[in-house]
Amino acid sequence: EDQVTQSPEALRLQEGESSSLNCSYTVSGLRGLFWYRQDPGKGPEFLFTLYSAGEEKEKERLKATLTKKESFLHITAPKPEDSATYLCAVQATADSWGKLQFGAGTQVVVTP
Amino acid sequence: NAGVMQNPRHLVRRRGQEARLRCSPMKGHSHVYWYRQLPEEGLKFMVYLQKENIIDESGMPKERFSAEFPKEGPSILRIQQVVRGDSAAYFCASSPFDTIAKNIQYFGAGTRLSVL
After folding, report:
1. Environment class of residue A107 by beta-carbon count within 10 Å: exposed (0-12), middle (13-18) or buried (19+)?
2. Which of A44, A45, A101 sits opposite B45 (nearest CB)?
3. For residue range A82-97, what is the model confidence (pLDDT) as tens digits?
4. B48-64 tens-digit pLDDT
5. What residues have CB less than 8 Å from B85, skipping those under 6 apart?
6. Is the distance from CB of B7 to CB of B107 less than 8 angstroms?
7. Chain B residues with CB inside 8 Å of A42's CB?
8. Which of A30, A63, B29, B74 could bridge across to A74 with cysteines, CB 3.0–4.6 Å?
9. Which pLDDT score, from 0 to 100, does residue B98 have?
């Protein structure tokens, strides 16, 4: 059975304290891996998509990487505005193009 | 440049009533997706639609739930005879699907359904 597991469940950081979030997945074939950010009471906001092992994407203080079994979202020198829940989702080759399977998310709190 | 629009933002229904959730995709997007987020759980895929077609409904409960995306107008997620377990946030997403690499789903702000 396909699974997407995110760790840790929650992360509390001091402003400027870099850290990494993990997303491990077990699918028969990976079509793509997506990272989203979700603020309370809002819908997920797209951040990155990765398609093959070794691929990296970067945006401001965020960098996403992909291996054959997991992805990391690195947050460098975070600021309080980076506080959010970060969601990982996979699109499996066995599924339709429209189906994303989400992990439970990592809730990040960055304190000044 | 309006994003994905969902309404209502909050919906309260009593057990046994019907709930109708609406979603207008981003301009130029012809593919719509519905997800449900139960309290303390992750987003779960429900259904994938194109105009006048259901492409994948593998995540839809077998009874009481239906979805449509007509040629004109918004996509509708309909829940008949709601029960307390239907209380959740329902999110709609859309994508242009012009190429495989660009099939990124953009989400609306969601509809919070509360069943009394």
Report:
1. middle
2. A101
3. 999 999 999 988 888 7
4. 999 899 999 999 999 99
5. B115
6. no
7. 109-110
8. A63
9. 64
